[in-house]
Amino acid sequence: MSVGVVLTGLGVAISPSAAQAADGVTSAQIAAFETATAAQSDQGDVQAAQTLIQFEALSDEEKERFVKLINDPYIYRQIFEASERASEAGAQSRIALAEGDVVVEVTSEEGVTETPAAEDQVSAAASTVTRWASHTHTDKLLGVKISATKVTTNYQTKGKDTTKVLPGTAQSYEYIPGCSLSHGVVDEWISAEPADNAQTETIWTADCAGSSWDGRQRVWGDYRGYVGGYIKVFN
Hints:
The protein has 235 residues and is α+β, with helices and mostly antiparallel strands. It has five helices and ten strands; from the N terminus they run αααααββββββββββ. The protein has a five-stranded antiparallel β-sheet with strand order 1-2-3-4-5, with helices on both faces. Strands 6, 7, 8, 9 and 10 form a five-stranded antiparallel β-sheet that branches. Helix 2 packs antiparallel against helix 3 (46-56) and helix 2 packs across helix 4. The protein starts with a helix and ends with a strand. 34% of the residues are buried.
């Protein structure tokens, strides 16, 4: 079922008694979201604290729209599939869903962790540099961050050659009711020449309302820094 079909269903005319019941459900959903994110914030989840602040800054009408969407059992699957399309669009891209209320953003970053001491830098070709590159998908609902996945590859280069891949990392957060997100082993390797990239990947597993699916997220880099990344959904 597409998000558009789900949202169309929300506009069906209802009786006054049904409207009152719906308002009660919506109020309960708003309270439940605030309680859940506050509990995570109290446990030291910095992102949960930021998400709660963003949510509380919404108008009453926006909060109602927010909880209707975030409690839609299909929305997280739609977000995951949009992440795949966003990856295809490029390193810095965004895709909108649900009439623009849901946005999937792709960003990439890179940096140098360690460079040789000045006395060791005889030439650029002789210097070993420790680098990192990351690929991140951030999901926002009415501007509120509700989930994200990030994979980072750590590696060393010497001149234009990638000489060593160090342990990579996978990080995430997710504040969608009834859903959970986890990942498997984080793998890393150097791709064959001439690509000569440091690659890192993991498999994310999302579970919502009894339905689950997987997505492979991969990032790669070389002496230039970030080279590419993607999410591929399957199951």
